[in-house]
Specification:
By secondary structure, the chain is an all-alpha fold. About 70% of the residues lie in helices and about 0% in strands. It folds into 2 domains: about 25-105; about 110-214. α2 (about 25-55) packs antiparallel against α3. The longest helix has 29 residues, at about 70-100. About 15% of the residues are buried.
């Protein structure tokens, strides 16, 4: 009898369900990342067109890589993207605060750890085996990028409504100084994006993690 029962159990289909590993990046993070990327690209392209209308330095950006067609059109694009960036940024900070992800991902962080990882990167020995963990260089770069975006928004408010934000204008050194702050903050952001894209090319699975979560 036991033998027949054993035979019956052997005939029963075995479960082939695979347990999926937890997503590297949650859905809300992936959505805010791509919305942020789109808003930033629009602001860069339109910002270059706005810059060309009154250059700070002895050069202008080629019109072919700017957005808006003319100053008024560029301003429309710039302000539209600005509100998207601000709203998206608040959602990002809210979810990070509630989930405590921001704290767990970016801290602890120390100058010694950053220097150690920089030396490892220069030797080509910086590990990217675990996509769930940021190394100290990544942590520092992402934190600076967040702070840079905040500075871009604040300096942009001064350029947009300097009379309505007198304290902010004072803290940034006035309207003209705020223009330089805004320009160099954008330059830093463009540099960050360039390095970020280079790292994606070197570690392509990071792009998959940010699109499908794994």
């Amino acid at each position: 009898m036991s033998g027949s029962l054993s035979g019956i159990s052997d005939l029963e289909p075995k479960s082939t369900t695979k347990i999926k590993s937890p997503a590297i990046h949650p859905v809300w993070l992936r959505l805010t990342h791509w919305v942020n990327a789109l808003a930033v690209l629009i602001m860069i392209g339109s910002g270059w067109r706005i810059y060309n209308a009154s250059p700070l330095f002895g050069f202008s950006f080629p019109n072919d890589i700017t957005l808006g067609g003319w100053l008024g059109g560029a301003l429309d694009w710039h302000f539209a993207a600005m509100w998207i960036l601000v709203a998206n940024g608040l959602i990002y900070l809210l979810f990070n605060g509630v989930s405590r992800r921001f704290w767990h991902k970016f801290f602890p962080l120390s100058p010694r750890a950053v220097w150690t990882d920089i030396k490892a990167a220069l030797r080509g020995r910086l590990s990217h085996a675990d996509a769930r963990r940021y190394n100290s260089v990544q942590k520092t770069a992402y934190l600076f990028a967040v702070l840079d975006l905040v500075l871009l928004v604040l300096s942009g408010l001064v350029l947009w409504k300097s009379v309505q934000f007198p304290i902010l204008a004072f803290l940034l050194g006035g309207y003209e100084t705020a223009r330089y702050v805004h320009f160099f903050s954008m330059a830093f952001l463009v540099g960050f994006i360039a390095i970020h894209l280079l790292m994606v090319l070197l570690v392509p699975r990071s792009l998959l993690a940010m699109t499908r979560g794994r």
